[in-house]
């Protein structure tokens, strides 16, 4: 064999060996919890989970100490049929607000029995005329002159789209919709406007393919402050970018007589009350599990009940303290291993979560994203279902280790979660199990833990 050929073969084999070693090292990194984070988390054993399930409180019992006082105001909840908005409605009723003073604006009608008799107006938040008409609708005589608080929760939530070519799918709801809502609210006398954002506004884009190892793979984000300094193409996905734009819009709208504030749920929202895939637990329970490669990841979870209580805490302070106006506050629970989340659903909910190699899923996500890029130029068949979600934009929200905290909300708003993640997950699974057992798999609206 010619020496040049031999050396070429040797060189190729050496490069190939290095690539294989590097890929093996990357996969090993993705399969492990960093030692520096292990002190923040404790694995939950099945016995601990079952004990928590046995002692779980009802949602009402857990919520009542945190509802703040009755305000005697009118309330518009934009997106009031969703996971967070529906709990705001429920909490307002529990603390004694007049049902005639509560108005739900959403594209779909509320399904919770407590909300079906409330004033609901079908509203497309991306249509300024639809929004203005909903705000201008007449109120009952006895509440017509009460001051007005608006909770704006409506959003397009989908994190797979990373390319800015998809931005037009998100701006009409996540940015323009909030602007239309604020403009209409001001015209109708609103003096307190609270928007729901996301703790993802603070996340730097993770790069798993760096030669030295993943970058931005471990992130500490106190209060989840938004990355206003980044260029538009530096964000992880269109959802994150439009939420940052929304926060800037709401903060700048703050003025005397129109106090604004922002709540940033962080990071994965779970919970019960509505059947909605925006709650990770409802989706997993409905599908009885699914493959996973996220068990080693450390991340915060937050129940939609705690998000709602954070909204009420912010309103309570906005009405008396202008120093908190124009600001955003992260609302979350303490960080946990994703493995703990899966173990609760396995122990109590009959779910299974078989492990797959993270490098395989990361590579598949890159290929799907590339295919979608080619599809924008060629008439190729669309990828549908859950597989379409598997793209880098989505993985940059969950395939990393991130620690948020609610210390700013605790200090400025007096916010405290009604329960921790273990009790919240047990409450959610118990609600699911009661519904399943009551009608053999159908939903019984009377079996909620209210």
UniProtKB/TrEMBL annotation:
The record lists the membrane-crossing segments as 6-24
Keyword Oxidoreductase among UniProt keywords:
yes
Q: Does the keyword Lipid metabolism apply?
A: no
Query: Which Pfam families would you find in this protein's record?
Result: 3Beta_HSD
Its Gene Ontology biological processes? Answer: ergosterol biosynthetic process
InterPro entries reported in the protein's UniProt record: 3Beta_OHSteriod_DH/Estase (IPR002225), NAD(P)-bd_dom_sf (IPR036291), NAD(P)_dehydrat-like (IPR050425)
From the UniProt record, list the coiled-coil ranges: none
Q: Which GO terms describe its molecular function?
A: 3-beta-hydroxysteroid dehydrogenase [NAD(P)+]/C4-decarboxylase activity
Q: Which UniProt keywords apply?
A: Membrane, Oxidoreductase, Transmembrane, Transmembrane helix
Q: Where is the 3-beta hydroxysteroid dehydrogenase/isomerase domain?
A: 76-344
Cellular component annotations (GO), alphabetically ordered: endoplasmic reticulum
Task: Return the similarity comment.
Answer: Belongs to the NAD(P)-dependent epimerase/dehydratase family. Dihydroflavonol-4-reductase subfamily.
Q: What is this protein called?
A: 3-beta hydroxysteroid dehydrogenase/isomerase domain-containing protein
Name the species this protein comes from: Cyphellophora attinorum
């Amino acid at each position: 064999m010619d020496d040049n050929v031999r050396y070429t073969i040797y060189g190729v084999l050496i490069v190939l060996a290095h690539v294989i070693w590097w890929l093996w090292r990357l996969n090993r990194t993705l399969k492990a919890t960093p030692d520096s984070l292990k002190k923040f988390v404790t694995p939950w054993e099945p016995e601990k989970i079952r004990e928590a399930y046995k002692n779980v409180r009802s949602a009402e019992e857990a919520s009542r100490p945190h509802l703040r006082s009755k305000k005697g105001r009118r309330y518009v909840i934009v997106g009031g049929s969703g996971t967070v908005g529906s709990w705001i409605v429920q909490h307002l009723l529990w603390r004694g607000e007049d049902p005639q003073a509560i108005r739900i604006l959403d594209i779909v009608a509320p399904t919770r029995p407590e909300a079906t008799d409330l004033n609901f107006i079908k509203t497309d938040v991306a249509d300024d005329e639809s929004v203005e008409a909903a705000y201008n609708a007449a109120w009952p005589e006895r509440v017509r002159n009460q001051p007005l608080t608006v909770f704006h929760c409506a959003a397009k939530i989908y994190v797979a789209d990373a390319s800015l070519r998809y931005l037009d799918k998100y701006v009409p709801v996540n940015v323009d919709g909030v602007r239309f809502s604020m403009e209409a609210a001001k015209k109708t006398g609103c003096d307190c406007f609270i928007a729901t954002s996301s703790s993802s506004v603070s996340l730097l884009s993770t790069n798993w393919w760096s030669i030295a190892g993943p970058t931005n793979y471990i992130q500490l984000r106190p209060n989840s402050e938004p990355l206003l300094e980044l260029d538009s193409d530096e964000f992880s996905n269109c959802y994150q970018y439009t939420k940052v734009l929304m926060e800037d819009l709401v903060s700048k709208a703050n003025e005397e007589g129109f106090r604004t504030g922002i709540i940033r749920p962080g990071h994965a929202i779970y919970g019960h009350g509505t059947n909605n895939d925006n709650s990770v637990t409802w989706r997993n329970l409905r599908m009885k599990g699914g493959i996973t490669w996220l068990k080693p990841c450390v991340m915060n979870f937050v129940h939609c009940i705690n998000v709602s209580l954070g909204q009420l805490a912010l309103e309570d302070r906005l009405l008396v303290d202008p120093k908190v106006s124009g600001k955003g506050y992260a609302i979350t629970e303490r960080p946990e291993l994703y493995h703990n989340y899966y173990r609760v659903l396995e122990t109590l909910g009959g779910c299974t979560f078989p492990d797959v190699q993270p490098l395989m899923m990361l590579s598949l996500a890159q290929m799907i994203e590339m295919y979608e890029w080619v599809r924008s130029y060629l008439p190729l068949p669309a990828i549908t279902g859950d597989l379409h979600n598997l793209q880098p934009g989505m993985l940059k929200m969950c395939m990393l280790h991130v620690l948020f905290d609610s210390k700013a909300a605790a200090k400025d708003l007096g916010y405290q979660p009604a329960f921790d993640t273990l009790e919240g997950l047990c409450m959610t699974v118990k609600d699911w199990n009661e519904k399943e057992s009551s009608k053999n798999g159908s939903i019984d609206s009377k079996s909620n833990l209210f």
